[in-house]
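Why does residue order matter? Because the sequence determines the fold. Keep that principle in mind as you read this record.
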Amino acid sequence: MSWQAYVDNNLLGTGKVAKAAILGLAGGVWAKSPGFDITPEEQKAIIAGFSAPDTIQASGVRLAGQKFYTLFVIDRTIQAKKAADGVVIVKTKQAVLVAEYVGPVQAPEVTPIVEGLADYLISVGY
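Structure:
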C-alpha cells in the first residue's frame, strides 16, 4: 500500500480525521491530505518535541500555520487542541503520523485510530 493510501483510507477514510499527514523522522512529507501543508520548520519542531517535550509544551504545535496548544507529550504521542479542534501526533520507528480532527469529534475517538495505524507500521518495520 502507498503512503498516500494510508492517509486516505486509514486516517481520512474513518470520517473522524479531517486532515492528515505522514512525515519521515529523517524529514520530508511522505503523504498528506490536500492543502495540509506542514512546513519544514513545523516538521522539525514536531519531531524535536518527542525528545524535548518541555519545549513543545511551552510553545505549542504549529501545523500548516495554525497553532495548537499542547495538552501532553507521553512517550510516542503528542496531543494538542485549538478551541474545539485538535491534533493527535504519533511517532513510529521511521515516521510521524499527524491527524487533525474538527469538533464535535474528540481526541478519544481519534487517538485509537492513529495509535492503531502506528502499531501496524511499527510491526512491519516502519
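The helical segments are 3-11, 40-51, 53-59, 107-123.
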